[in-house]
Amino acid sequence: MSVRLDDVDRKILKELQSDAGQSLDEIARKVGSSKTPVWNRIRKLRDAGVIGQQTVLLDAEALGFEACFFVLIRTSEHEAEWQKKFLKALQDRPEVQEAHRLAGDIDYILKVRVANARAYDVFYQALIAEVRIYNVTALLSMEELKSTTMLPI
């Protein structure tokens, strides 16, 4: 579902994506409006589902999570019960930052953040003990070149 946005809405969203910790006064000044209309627009965008959960971004490496693995999963299981069990296993593991079901030869891709290779192996062993998986390929990211949560609005 698409929501109609005007130029002021887009400016507000760009500011919030850039730094959601800004005060309403700062955002209003930057978008050329005043505080109350900006607050009303933010509330409208939140009610429409355009703005979701607000959070902070943490530095994974500074917190000791130095290894990022992209895990490619192929399965021969496609039944609803298996999918439900797999989804629960992913949701129960905080190491999994992202999970996507794919079209093509690979069924799923996970982004897994852990301290090191040994911690990845602990994650992997727990996952395969819980759900049946046909093939797993883990790719270690050597360097993060770009990472953003910002949409090109």
What does this protein structure show overall?
The chain has a four-stranded antiparallel beta sheet with strand order 2-3-1-4. It has helices spanning 7-18, 24-31, 35-47, 80-91, 117-130; strands at 67-74, 96-101, 108-114, 135-140. The chain is of the alpha+beta class and 153 residues long. The longest helix has 14 residues, at 117-130. It has five helices and four strands. It has two domains: 7-47, Winged helix-like DNA-binding domain superfamily/Winged helix DNA-binding domain (Arc Repressor Mutant, subunit A); 67-140, Alpha-Beta Plaits (2-Layer Sandwich), CATH 3.30.70. The protein is 39% helix and 18% strand. The mean pLDDT is 95. Strand 2 and strand 3 (108-114) form a beta hairpin. Helix 1 (7-18) packs across helix 2 and helix 2 packs across helix 3 (35-47).
